[in-house]
Amino acid sequence: MPMQQHPHYGAAMALLGAQVRRAVISEAGTPFGVAQVITRVLGPLRLSLLSRGPVWLTARGGAARGRVLRQLAEGAGVFFATPEHPLKARGLLTVAAPRQQAVIGLCAKPDALRARMAGKWRNRLARAEAAGLETGVRIPVAADLDWLMRHELAQRKARRYRALPPAFTLAWQRVAPDALRYYEARLGKRRVAAMLFLLHPPWASYHVGWSGDEGRRMNAHNALLWRAMRDLQSRGFAALDLGPVDGDANPGLARFKAGTGAVVAPLGATSLVLPALIRRRW
């Protein structure tokens, strides 16, 4: 269940002014997939996006998946889709190359999760644990989000990267206040790093994080991510999505994500979907 296909995401986007359409895909009365489409209206233009979907309940071949996308595109204006897995099918015109995504499976025991880490990543984690860092976890309150978003926005500006705006985080908190998880690292009374995760069972996603100079020297993000992996696993989450991996734009971050033991695999290409010409039966 990628975040973009979860009802929490749709509800947050609706608060931000988007139109949200959800579909159950069935055959002979038996559901075999679900999809969530987000639409923005810009004057006379309707732009729709199906991101990382549909979520298939049973396996379907590429031709069948392509037909479903074309049916979803009917009446949706200009319709783009980024499937969770690579897909080539009739009526899909590639407009952007697939990106790599890092996902950590959380079904193994903690010892096995740690053993999957790259040696350098695991060594940095051990140094962080020996440095005396204290890590804490809680559902964030408004003051936590305000502090983290201010620091992360300054970090974003300094490092020149893009991410979802703070308004999205606040909208998510409004629609699902218990579906956020905040982790912070302290050295004494000093907060040296923090991470925020969004919960969309049975998966969770890394959302934003910040680390000061002291936190980076002490590998605080290694300690926080390990704390998050164990905490989420104990709560029954099956996977942790770390987001896109771009070795060209940010090789250091790409190595960090890959070093966790995550599976790094391509999503489907972003495609313009030509609607199917189907006759409705009422």
The number of helices is 9
Class of secondary structure makeup:
alpha+beta
| CATH 2nd-level architecture of the largest domain | 3-Layer(aba) Sandwich
Q: What characteristic shape results from the CA principal axes? A: globular
Q: Superfamily at the CATH H level of the largest domain?
A: Gcn5-related N-acetyltransferase (GNAT)
Top CATH class of the largest domain: Alpha Beta
Oligomer: single chain
Elements, N to C (H/E): HEEEEHEEEHHEHHEEEHHEHEE
Number of DSSP strand runs: 14
- Largest pleated sheet: 7 strands, mixed
* Beta-strand percent range: 25-35%
The number of domains is 2
Radius of gyration: 20 Å
> In the CATH scheme, what's the topology name of the largest domain?
Aminopeptidase
* Low-confidence regions: none
Q: What does the average pLDDT come to?
A: 93
Distance between the termini: 32 Å
The helix content is 25-40%
